[in-house]
Amino acid sequence: MKKIFFTTFLAFLFMLIFANKALVSADNYPFSAGLSVSGKMGINAAKVPDGIQNNPSLLKGVDFGVLGYLPMSEDSRTGLFVELGYTNTPFALKNYATNITGHINQKLLTISPYLLMSGFTIGLDFGFALSKTVDPEVLIFTPMDNDINVNIRVGGMIPLHTSSIGTLNFIANATYSLTGLQYLQTAYTYQPSTLSIGLNYLFNLEGF
User: Fold this and answer.
1) Which strand (E) or helix (H) includes residue 60?
2) Structural domain span for residue 31
3) How far apart are CA 183 and CA 143, in angstroms?
4) Could you tell me if 144 and 184 are in contact, meaning their C-beta atoms sit under 8 angstroms apart?
5) What is the four-CA torsion angle of 145, 50, 90, 103, rounded to 10 degrees?
6) What is the pTM of this model?
7) Which CA distances in Å does 63 have to 10, 35, 97, 195?
8) Ranges of the chain with pLDDT below 70
9) Whether the Cβ atoms of residue 116 and residue 79 lie closer than 8 Å to each other
10) Domains in the chain: how many in total?
11) CATH of the domain at 168
């Protein structure tokens, strides 16, 4: 399930970016600030105890962000993003004994520095726990809250419409937890991995 999850995402991302090669090889974005919104799905990428199965959890909440972009080249889309976001980390576990699938979602305040390189992005998410939901609450192996979560993120960004005001972009990202979430009273650790698809808008600040 996990291999299918990420293989599908990477194939989708490469197809979109190479299909829009003329767009991503155009002049760089100007110095910009903007907003982002995206839907998300996730899965636990770590081993689970016997009798438990990892399942994907779909669209448990919407991510929002404010971001800034600093261009690092005049003739290619290369630069540095810094994004402050409200993000979700959803995944699901099925308990074979009870036939119950529990959905877990940790909500985070994230600070994300990442590089843009010809349409591809790579960087880190530093997340600070805001809240956590477990549905239904009878799910065993409830994770503890981490004060700080660190994820590696890879993705892509494709311009859809550009004007003198700014640029509307399609965005897609995958994340993998480096810190994980410890199971309550067990030696196991969750490693949530997510996929998100959405839009951002970058406002041109060079004219101000």
Assistant:
1) strand 57-71
2) 2-204
3) 4
4) yes
5) -100
6) 0.86
7) 21, 11, 33, 11
8) 1-26, 59, 137-146, 183-187, 207-208
9) yes
10) 1
11) 2.40.160.20
